[in-house]
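Fold in tokens:
===
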Amino acid sequence: MTAEEFNNCVDLYADNLYRFILKNIKDEEKARDVVQDTYEKLWLKVSEVESTNAKSYMFTTAYRTMIDRIRRDKKQGEMTEASLYSLSTSRQYSDLKEILNEALNKLPEIQRSVILLRDYEGYNYAEIGEITGLNESQVKVYIFRARGFLKNYIGAMENVI
């Protein structure tokens, strides 16, 4: 891959990569760091990675970097401030997107990742398997379970109203 192809990859995939990571870890600074680390790792291996495989390489690297960061943060622990929204007792309908995000947040980490890769980013089962290190059958099972949970969660009237 040439420097021009690398720059093209940054232009083409940076937003998708950032959105995927942000949906998983829900912290803008950490998501930016993961994306930056991903592009740094790609730059270090620029001579080894073909430009046709760059997107898959970046999503795989970003996913693994994100997992490493989550594990490291769990060991260290985090101090978070309670937001005013989370302290609110009002359960009025505000936005379907918020309800969907809330439902996604309730999914286990691996199910959320495969659902985001499949439904938000448009990867096929084999590509998701490569990115997450799962086999295609496991990917299908996790997607099935995640969609079932989302259907039940969003279908419950008390979650929408």
